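ESCALATION

Customer reports they have been waiting on this structure for their group meeting. Please prioritize. Original submission:
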Amino acid sequence: MRQVLTESVHGTDAYLTGDDQHAEPRVLGGRERASRASDGPILTFFTAPTVDMHGEVARLLPVYYQKSFEEALQDAAALFEDPVLLKRTHRHLSRLGGSSKKTDALQQVILEEVQKRPAITVTDLLKHLQSLQDLRQVVDDIDEEAISFTDRNGHPKNAPISGLKDRLSRAKKALKSR
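Update from on-call: job pushed to the front of the queue and completed.
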């Protein structure tokens, strides 16, 4: 059954139900809307209906045939009654939380050197990294294009020498912000 929003007053929306424009409006209060909003993961629960509605607009579906927001919420609520989908959605949202970015071992060496010598230049930093290469600490190899180093987990990584100036400026910026 189609519903058409006629007015919105103080958190309650009046909808016309049915195909007849002269039908009695049905008022949906805050409780009904709140009960639907509290079910399932909030982000996906509200994203699914809006994506669905935007899809109808993108397909140039006439307004008369487009779903109302309440219908889109009902469709989303029906999707979240499936326990497998709900578990998958929770898992996906948990992954989005993730963990904070950690600085890699090379950036940590640069931060330490900037703390010792705040006015260090890129050339001086490259010389310092070459001395670390001779000692086999963190830096494994430096060639014309890249710095090979071992990260915290013992995995080999490469960083372009052209990016050394950016790493240095980030380290100096971090030092100033402390």
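Sent to customer with the following note: The beta strands are 3-9, 12-17, 25-28, 139-142, 146-150, 156-160.
Escalation resolved.
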